[in-house]
Amino acid sequence: MSDDADGSSSQTTLTGEVPEELTTDDLILSAHRADNDAVFPKVLDLHVETGAKVADVTYGKGVFWKNVPDTAFDLHGTDLDPEKSPTGESVDCRDLPYDDNSFDVVVLDPPYAEGFFRRNKEMLAGGDGSHSTFREHYSNGEVVDTRGSKYHGAVIDLYCAAGAEAKRVLRDDGTLIVKTQDEVSANTQELTHVQIINFYESQLGLYTKDLFVTVRSNTPAVSGVHTQVHARKNHSYFLVFTFEKKPANVQYAGVDAEK
Known about the structure:
This protein has about 260 residues and is an alpha/beta fold. The chain has helices spanning about 35-45, 130-140, 150-170, 190-200, and strands spanning about 1-5, 10, 30-35, 55, 75, 105-110, 170-180, 185, 190, 205-215, 235-240. This is DNA modification methylase.
């Protein structure tokens, strides 16, 4: 199999046969103006084999699986909120009740806004109408145990700890699918997806195999803003990680970073 510059591949079977050529309409694209439940099945179609054993460790209301056939995968869903967890028990994505090397796929979608990690319950994000849907999906109204971290650091620490735990339960040929969104915290641009990729590759030894961009179909609500400093986020990401050998780093010949 050889990879082309546009992300497509030229494949041959074990018998040397070349599969039927894909048409333009068959291709799965990297960016979509659609909801999560429309994009997530495309991620699965491209990167997960039918029948795979999948742990969705932040199941929530199961929105990702809305358009996925029930029989397509061996799905094990859990959530920190016992009322949302299919098992009826509270399960922290940083401390999973699974054996090592026991899953083909882990799906991770924790809260990615620092406002959901404030220590004062009355200060949690999502109290107003503009964020009520977001809060309903990502929070049970309780303060999340941040293990000492705060603000955006709490967001990243959660992704790091949950990623390490996901690696533990994944098989050697497993796949980790992570949903996230960048944010502005304390008037500072935080490229969360870049921070996650850097940690997962440098510390966990994972390879970022793919990235999907989901653009909101509606306009984000806003209140209390008088002067805009950063572009308002209306896109998020599905990141796909595997244990494949990481490609060699690009060498920037002739570039002097000290100049």
